[in-house]
Amino acid sequence: GGGEQLTAWHCNGLAIECIAEGHPIATGAVKVQEVTFANERKKKGSNRMDLVNPQGKKKKGSMYVNAETVICTVTLEDGTKFKVHANTAGHLIELNARLLTTPDLLRSSPTDQGWIGVIQPSKDAIDKLKALSEKHGLATKNLRIQ
Q1: If you ran DSSP here, which 8-state letter would residue 32 be given?
Q2: Which of 37, 38, 40, 78 is most buried, judged by most C-beta within 10 A?
C-alpha cells in the first residue's frame, strides 16, 4: 500500500515522522494490528528498537537513515501492509515504543501519540525540506513529544 506521510518539524530542529491524517491508515475503519520496526542490519532476532539508543551530543548509537529507509511496517487487521519510510536523511534517534503495545495509535492519533520516529536531520535534508515546504506551501507543525 501507499499513502501520505507527514514530517513535522519540532521547534528544536528535529523531524518527527508521522502518518498524515489523510493516509488510509488514519482514515480507515480497519484497526492497526501490528507495527514492526524494520531492522536493516539483519541481526537475527533483533528489532530496530534495540539498535536505536543514542547517547551524547554526537548521537552515538543512532542509526543513519535516508529518505527511502523503511522505519517500520504497519499491518492492519485485514492483512493490508504499509511500509513507512524515514522521509528525510539524518540520524534516527528515537522510535515510539508505545506503537509496539498500542499500534492503533497510528490510526486514532496519527500526528500526536501515534508518531513513529524522531530524526535529527542532516543539514542538507533540512535545507531540502524547507525549500520543498516553501515551494508547495506546506505547513509545518510543532509537536511536543512527551
Answers
A1: E
A2: 37
- Ranges of H-type helices in the chain: 24-27, 48-51, 98-101, 105-108, 123-136
| 128 contact partners, CB below 8 Å, separation of at least 6 | none
Prediction pTM value: 0.76
Q: Please, is 46 exposed, middle or buried when counting C-beta atoms within 10 Å of its C-beta (0-12, 13-18, 19+)?
A: exposed
Cell (9 digits) for 113? 501519540
- Residue 37 corresponds to which cell in the numbers above? 520496526
Strands (E), the chain: 5-9, 15-19, 32-37, 63-65, 70-76, 81-85, 90-95, 117-121
**What angle (nearest 5°) sits at the alpha carbon of residue 5, between those of residues 128 and 118?**
70
Q: Which residues pair with 15 in a beta bridge?
A: 9, 119
Residue 31 DSSP code: P
Q: What is the pLDDT of residues 61-106, one digit of tens each?
A: 688 899 899 999 999 999 999 999 998 899 999 999 999 999 999 9
